Amino acid sequence: MTTEPQIRDPLEIERSEEARLRTAAGLPPVARSGEFAGFESVGLPDRPPQTDREREVYTLDEGEMLVNMGPQHPATHGVMRLVIKVRGEIVVDIDPVLGYLHRGIEKLCENATYTTVMTYVDPMDYLSAMHNEHAPAIAFEKLYGIKAPRRAEYIRALVVELNRVFSHGLMMGFQALDMGGLTPILMSFINRDEVVDLLSAISGQRMLFNFFRVGGVNFDVNDEFISRLSTWRAGVLKNVEMNERILTDNEIFRGRTIGMGVLSGKEAISLGVTGPSLRASGVPFDVRKAHPYCIYPELEFDVITQPGGDVYSRYLQRVAELKQSIHLIDQIVDKMPHGPVQAQVPGIIRPRPGRAYAAVESPRGLYSVYAISDGGPNPYRFRMRDPSFISLQAIPKLMPGRLIADTMAVMASFDPVMGGVDK
Amino acid sequence: MSVDLLLGVGRFVLATTLLLLMTVPTAFIVIQMEIKVIAQMQLRYGPNRIGPWGMFQSTIHGFKFLAKEDHMPDQADRATFTLAPWMVYMAAAMSMLVIPFAPGVIAADFNIGIVYFFAVIGLSVVGLLIAGWASYNKYSLLGGLRSAAQMVSYEIPLTLSVVGVVVLGGTLNFRELIAWQQAHGWMLLWQPIGLGIFYIASLAEINRTPFDMVEADSELVAGPFTEYSGMRFGFFFFAEYVALFIMSGIMTALFFGGWLAPWPFPAQLDGFAGTIYGLFWFFLKSYLFVFVAVWLRATLPRVRVDQLMGMAWKVLLPLAMLNLIATAGVVVWLNL
Amino acid sequence: MTIEGDQNVPVLWRLRDDAELGFWFLADAAAVDYGVGEHLEVVYHLYSDRHPSWLRVRARVDRSNPHLPTITGLWEGATFHEREMYDMMGIVFDGNRDLRRIFMSPDYRSFPQRKDFLLPDDASDSPAAGVNPLERPETWDLARLEGER
After folding, report:
1. C102, C126, C139: which to substitute to probe chain A, counting the most A Cβ within 10 Å?
2. Cα B63 → chain centroid
3. CA nearest A180 in B: which residue?
């Protein structure tokens, strides 16, 4: 395709608001270009670098080369571009380029009613859709001033832990797939399929559940479901162990993951990494224990940590949390009370003006919602903090000095989901 | 022109034609095995629509390659770009000349058969290098260089492990080696370490998992084969699977007695029935090793490039040399 | 807790390093636009082991001069937060080494989450406008259609 591009400076920023802001800030509107080779070799139109960091990444020294791990990955995680500066096989620097899946969900939710927001947030972190809905549900309940009934809270915890089970299971599969093992991913998908069958029995959907409501959940859980759940429960540990047997003691797997991508606890906190990746670096921060929500104060569980901080520890951490979630599911099913599953709320909710913040522990980390209401039927500001987004910042810190093949291994260990990263 | 010469030439032409014709169905069978076996190991069916039990899936793959558009990058070097797949395929086909299928069924019964085999296998390295270079694509180039490095490094332990076999057997001729194994027992009993080294090195030589960095996510594209499509890529693709069969066949011949049957059965029969008998056992054993290779592919993740090279030079090579020295010592001591 | 914009760094520093307060974890950094004539706001949420709930620090920013010191010196993970706030709201963080757009393309020219954001007409605004002849009405051959009628 050889169309002639319009010769317009893509950064016509002299006249734009952006330029005014930058000049007012003392930042150069167009940065000086040094011996700067970068953008053309990764397929972008040539332009001067805009920031210090950009100049740092895109300036090539002797023997360095920019390689594009392009938006279409052969494997996982979604559409993300990693511009990797390599010297031979060794990675010198990485620049993640995001935004390929940006759908403007935050802005869309400002035009949606509080109930419709549940459908909008599902496809953010689509592998943990229940968590995506849990946080807004709690935030909106805080705004509206009600609490969900106890049975609803128990059902919420149940589906959330089920979601965590299959999300961590999938991470095991993706970790292996990114390193070339073809089989564990299929075991993970068998696991996921079984759980998704259960979740679709409750909510009617297989992936984007639209299950939570402000004030409770949408559907109730009946005895037949509980018996299906126990049948599933009987078989799930065997499936997980099948995967574990292929991976955990495998020499090749261990050789590629132990000592790789080591993130210390302090670094992890500073970078904002949360969830299993943070706990695998030894920091016992779990939102379910730190600021308990839902019915977690009533459930017995410990915060698991691993001492390492490398890829193998993150893998072990997720396997351990998977088993912990199964244990939690047992407790929830034992303790589930009877009662209504949805509080009495009107069709279109108009909470009083105010602000609310709610955070949940998603399989990727701390997922939080900051909602501002102005009294009308739509949220005034709906902000989501996605854990994969922030965890991605760890990748450029961990990779320099490693080989390209390790990039995929390290990325898979943080288990990012691009839907959440790009909102 | 003597009749003998004509007959010899005619026999040779017939043999090579048969072999070339045999490579493609062999590739089809091996690919089909891979698809179905990996599928069963992953608790799924695999293709089961084309033909009974999906038997003709890989045939259809072959026709698909023929049907695809064959394009070439503008700035690629036409001659070498076209030559590369031929070289790789010819390496595989030529090395089939010396494989001992059954008593009397060897295309070329060289007295230096083993040397010839390893010489010809090395041609595929050149083919891959040319493929990477001629594509005018830096990722292909890097992938080609890396694969060449891998294959060259593993050729050394490969050949060294076979030298032990040769020292014991006293001959470089495949047929005589099998006769030796009939007399003294299969070579795997004499050279277990050599067998291990040979198997690992052969997997690395043909770029099979766990050593398939070349084609998997080498720079996240297909390495030296990135710019190839249609039948050109088909050549590379089939050559890989034919090479898998060939390596398994050579391993059977060198270590597992070739066409000989295992203990409770009579080792060899005579005449035409003997040929069929030998063919049966040879193919059974070869495909067993193909199955093991496919099994490894289904199970193991990939070894990283530097770990791979490290293993070749720091582990396999010293082991092979020690094995050779020990074998030579035993031969001298026992006056074999 | 509401503070003036330019004091965010000292306040957050104190909150983080003080032994009693000990807000060692930055959970979220968000930006809010209060309307066309109103100010902008950057909201930080912090976590501490010693306090039973999250702490919300709201830093007020003027719309006409939306600058704020960066907190990447305190938490490196704030880089992406601040890039997103710049990209979506147009708040410039002084001192951030990597203040470029993160979701939108680098040549995008307005700030989507502002309340006065108007969706640009892509066909005329982007550098690819008019490349495809079908998008340029002057290239349409209407005479050809006339004959067919």
Report:
1. C102
2. 23
3. B301
Of the candidates B38, B138, B304, the beta carbon closest to that of A256 is on B304
CATH number at residue A184: 1.10.645.10
- The sheet with strand A379-385 has its strands ordered as A354-362, A365-373, A379-385
Measured between alpha carbons, how far is residue A233 from residues A169, A239, A376 in Å? 14, 10, 44
Residue A139: predicted pLDDT = 92
Q: pLDDT tens across B33-54, in order?
A: 888 898 888 888 888 888 787 7
* C23 vs C1: CA distance, rounded Å: 14
Query: Do B304 and A403 make contact, defined as CB atoms within 8 angstroms?
Result: yes
Q: Which residue in chain A has the smallest CA separation from C49?
A: A290
Partner chains of A (3+ C-beta pairs under 8 Å):
B, C
CA closest to A369 among chain C residues:
C28
Q: How far apart are CA A76 and CA B263, in angstroms?
A: 50
Q: Three-class SS of residue B116?
A: helix
What is the C-alpha to C-alpha distance for residues B325 and B102, in angstroms, rounded to an integer? 32
Q: What is the pLDDT of residue A341?
A: 83
Token pair 């954001």 is found at C117
Q: For residue B314, how many C-alpha atoms fall within 13 Å in the half-sphere facing its CB? A: 6
The answer to whether A132 and A366 have CB atoms below 8 angstroms apart is no
Q: What are phi and psi of B208, to 5 degrees?
A: -100, 150
Nearest CA in chain A to C74: A270
pLDDT of residue A5: 38
Answer whether A271 sits within 8 Å of C77, measured CB to CB.
yes
- Signed CA dihedral, A284, A287, A291, A294: sign only: negative
Residue B38, min C-alpha distance to chain A (Å)? 8
Q: Is the ipTM of this complex over 0.90?
A: no
Q: Would A43 be classed as within a structural domain?
A: no
Residue A31, pLDDT score: 38
**Does A63 map to a domain?**
no
Taking the C-alpha atoms of residue A214 and residue A405, their distance in angstroms, rounded to an integer, is 45
Check if CATH label 3.90.700.10 holds for domain C2-148: no
Residue B200 in contact with residue B167, Cβ under 8 Å?
Answer: no
Taking phi over 0 as left and psi of -120 to 50 as alpha, with beta for the rest, B45 belongs to: alpha
Cβ within 8 Å, pair A67-B139: yes
Q: Give pLDDT tens digits for A148-179.
A: 899 999 999 999 999 999 999 999 888 888 88
Asked whether residue A37 carries a pLDDT value surpassing 60, the answer given is no
Asked if the structure places residue A49 within a domain, the reply is: no
Give domain limits for chain B: 3-334
- Domain range enclosing A212: 105-390
- CA distances (Å), origin A389, targets A190, C2, C79, C101, C102: 28, 27, 11, 14, 11
- Inspect the interface and report whether the beta carbons of A181 and B216 lie closer than 8 Å: no
Report the candidate in A199, A204, A216 with the shortest Cα–Cα distance to residue A115.
A216
Q: Read off the pLDDT of residues A301-334 as tens digits, 9 standing for 90 and up.
A: 888 888 888 899 999 999 999 999 999 999 999 8
Q: Does residue A343 register a pLDDT over 90?
A: no
Asked if B297 and A182 come within 8 Å (Cβ–Cβ), the reply is yes
Contact C127, A8 (CB under 8 A): yes
Give the rounded percent of residues in chain A with a pLDDT score beyond 90.
25
Tell me how far apart the alpha carbons of residues A155 and A378 are, in angstroms, rounded to a whole number. 26
Does a structural domain hold residue A21?
no
